[in-house]
Amino acid sequence: MVAYIIRRLLLVIPTLLGVMIVNFALIQFVPGGPVEQVLAQLEGEGDVFAAITGGDDAGIGESAGNDQYAGARGLPQEYIEQLEREFGLDRPPLERFTRMMWKYMQFDFGESYFRSIKVVDLVLEKMPVSISLGLWSTLLIYLVSIPLGVRKAMRDGSTFDTVTSALVIVGYGIPSFLFAIMLLVLFAGGSYWQIFPLRGLTSNGFEEMSLLAKIGDYFWHMALPIFASVISGFATLTLLTKNSFLDEIRKQYVVTARAKGLTENRVLFGHIFRNAMLIVIAGFPSLFIGVFFGGSLFIETIFSLDGLGRLGFEAAISRDYPVMFGTLFAFGLLGLIVGILSDLMYVIIDPRIDFEARG
């Protein structure tokens, strides 16, 4: 197992390098850049896209790769060159990429172009929101889906199985942002009830509250965002749990256990559960990362939560390259390590699994 982990860790380096190369290369062909963002604001264009087109006088195809910036009319060339030096864009792309990766290997992610704050500090500032959504959403999905999936497997083909399958599939088909808006309208002072707060992670005066009041206030604010995040997550895990149990129930060792006179609960939880839950529990790290990083932009925007989803979106719009590439490197590395942890979970749950013996 140690040799397998070492091989996987060594594969992290070329994989992460490939991800960074592809994204860095793509960004070279995207119109606009941090310099154009500054010029757009100075020229009163409002955003980089107006600066790229340059109004009625510039062609649509002009971009930051040209000798003259479309949004730089009337600005001295010396000022533009100074901006390029400040952003490090006066060097060739290969040199910029090499310098960037060398710093990243030392976990130096630089400073945001437009916020005057280190990327690490910026991410840590936004982390509580994303951790809250990711952690509680994942736990809620597991707490509901696993018992429901087991129950559906034990009553396969019954009315209960049919009705619950219909409900989870309908929930899966509802977009999370649409469900979030519906929750706001119904329970956050829209047109019906004012039960939950409309925005934020905590209330005013949170620091002065008692510990119990802080916990209650925190979950009061997180209730609707978490519910909106998990509505489409029940279906996959519930049906996976059900099918995993059905596969195990039909195996010979279950027939033998029943023939020995074991009770149904002993057969279910003493024999079937461990084998059936292998694939479900081992997928917990990857599911958490998926909820943590994916699909949170709309939820954070609708509920006015300042997390990593909004951070990534705003960095892409403003062409804040240190934030874009720094978070891409850090989260890419985290995702690859989580993949290794998922394999370790298999071994912990079932020691009979030996990855070193695979083809």
TrEMBL record:
Location (main, coarse): membrane
Pfam entry (one): BPD_transp_1
Residue span, ABC transmembrane type-1 domain: 127-346
Domain of life: Bacteria
Keyword set includes Transmembrane: yes
Gene3D superfamilies tied to this protein: MetI-like
UniProt entry keywords in alphabetical sequence: Cell membrane, Membrane, Transmembrane, Transmembrane helix, Transport
Membrane-topology annotation of the record: Multi-pass membrane protein
Compartments where found: Cell membrane
Keyword Nucleus: no
GO cellular component term of the entry, any: plasma membrane
Listed SUPFAM superfamilies: MetI-like
Sequence intervals crossing the membrane: 9-30, 129-150, 162-188, 218-241, 276-303, 323-349
Gene Ontology annotations of biological process type: microcin transport; transmembrane transport
Family, as annotated: Belongs to the binding-protein-dependent transport system permease family.
Name of the protein in its database record: ABC transporter permease protein
Natural source organism: Planktomarina temperata RCA23
Phylogenetic lineage: Bacteria, Pseudomonadati, Pseudomonadota, Alphaproteobacteria, Rhodobacterales
